[in-house]
Amino acid sequence: MSFNYLFFGLALCVLIWISWRFASYRWVLPCPVWLHRLLEYDNPLTRANQTNVILSNLALAPGMNVLDAGCGPGRLTIPLAKKIGAQGRVTALDIQAGMLQKVQEKAKREGIHTIQLLQAGLGDGKLGHNQYDRALLVTVLGEIPHQKAAMQELFDALKPGGLVVVTESMFDPHFQSQSTVLRLAQEIGFRKKGVMGNRLAYSLQLEKPH
Q1: Per residue in 189-200, pLDDT tens?
Q2: pLDDT in tens, 7-58
Q3: 7 to each of 2, 4, 44, 64, how far by Cα in Å?
Q4: What is the number of other CB atoms lying within 10 angstroms of the CB of residue 70?
């Protein structure tokens, strides 16, 4: 009986993933808040998408100003805030108020007071210029309808010499290939600094030149 339940659960997950992937070709469908638990944990099958790997690619230092764009429920936001310490600041940006509420709840439980919540979409022009030392864009780019505007705002918001890590995984219905992301980033002015992973899951390190 337990095997049947397991099989049914796996089949249902696969069906949801396939349906979501096909629907994402026609509509912008960010992960709904009620599915936030799917975003809470590292995927053991894709090392490039694991929290410690992503953060290590950012070369973080205490006191930095960091943007978590499309933060979701805060899987990376909270570890980021801990890494940069009490003198740093993390801006948690998400288009969904429900996701930001999850971040706020986690920060309160952890006693963290250095996270600024910003409800907006990347590309809406809310970030200003030369504000951030580092930025994250983790399995988010495919959910953005105007990707060039989003990457331009990200470029403008970084300080010269600042880094952004773009992480993508084939397990995400909105997966963007490395070549697609790199071509867009280079059109904006980013320079490729490094990459970890493979075609199915990768973390691409991009630099805003001085």
Answers
A1: 999 999 998 888
A2: 555 554 445 544 444 444 445 567 776 665 566 666 665 677 788 889 999 9
A3: 9, 5, 20, 46
A4: 24
